[in-house]
Design brief:
Blueprint: E1 6-13, E2 23-34, E3 37-50, H1 55-75, H2 83-101, E4 111-112, E5 114-120, E6 123-129, E7 133-137, E8 142-144, H3 151-157, H4 163-166, E9 188-193, E10 199-203, H5 205-208, H6 213-222, H7 226-239, E11 246-253, H8 259-271
Antiparallel strand pairs: 1-11, 2-3, 3-4, 3-5, 5-6, 6-9, 7-8, 7-10, 10-11
Helix pairs in contact: 1-2, 6-7
Length: 272
């Protein structure tokens, strides 16, 4: 038995003000065989590199390539570890690879954000470092799964500024946790149960830094085609000035139960 596949789309754009694109993205699908049959999985990631010259581009590329190789190898192993453990191990290896490459004097000081979504049937596993983001968007609500590791997020949490003010704050580019800056890096980890109508969106700050979440959600919900929605969002970010590289991935799982049906079923069990 094969579970529903992911419908995916993505856009990867330099923006209007940057000379090169230091973002790297991953959007790949594969099958996992279990005792319950074959399930379809998807591995999505956005990495926003930083550093002098082309170092940021190198850091994000290393992180994405390492993540892909490590995750798929571990998930397809004879006795795979739990998905969140697989992601944690992949982040640790990606961090080590970036640090190792940064020993070259030309790449010294480079680093990268990394936000990853692993989708297995109706389960979403997220690992996150930096200020790229993962959202769940549906017709009912928009949920920001990840929390930025940044100075402005700390200011928002402290009540010093609003989320709207954070988008234009002079310290908005100061990141407090990234791959490549420390041997001991711990990603935030999340698990989310998915339902029919859920859209998983990953993006760099070139998108969420210039467009409010309400605009992002409206565009995603309005489009039947994830690729078109990604293109539309990129165009909107560029119309807003395109100050940074823009990366966005949208994934829509298929064959999942509706949120209403699950609530009804749980309510019925409680009543019995």
């Amino acid at each position: 038995m094969r579970q529903g596949r992911l419908e995916t789309g993505y856009s990867w754009d330099t923006g209007l003000l940057r000379e090169i694109n230091e973002d790297s993205i991953l959007c790949t699908g594969f099958d996992i065989r279990t005792h319950q049959g074959t399930v379809s999985a998807g591995l999505l990631a956005v990495a926003d590199g930083m550093g002098g010259h082309s170092a940021g581009e190198v850091a994000s590329d290393i992180a994405i390539r390492t993540l892909q190789a490590k995750c798929i190898s571990d998930l397809l192993a004879q006795s795979p570890a739990p998905p969140l453990d697989v992601l944690a191990s992949a982040f640790d290896e990606a961090n080590s690879r970036v640090l190792e490459a940064a020993s070259d004097s030309l790449l010294e000081g480079m680093g990268t954000t990394l936000t990853t979504a692993l989708v297995i049937d109706g389960d979403l596993y997220v690992a996150h470092v930096g200020d790229s983001r993962c959202y769940i968007i549906n017709s009912r609500e928009t949920i920001q799964v990840t929390r930025d590791h940044s100075v402005v997020q700390q200011l928002v949490d402290a009540g010093a500024i609003t989320a709207e003010q954070a988008r234009n704050h002079p310290r908005r580019n100061e990141i407090t946790r990234v791959l490549g800056y420390s041997r001991d890096i711990v990603p935030d980890m999340h698990y989310v149960k998915l339902y029919a109508g859920d859209n998983i969106l990953l993006c760099s700050d070139g998108l969420h830094g210039v467009l409010p979440s309400s605009s992002i959600s409206e565009t995603v919900i309005a489009s039947d085609d994830p690729d078109q929605a990604c293109s539309d969002l990129t165009a909107q970010a560029n119309l807003a000035g395109g100050p940074d590289n823009i990366s966005v991935i949208i994934a829509r799982p298929g064959g999942l139960p509706s949120w209403q049906a699950v609530v009804t079923a749980k309510t019925g069990i409680r009543r019995v």
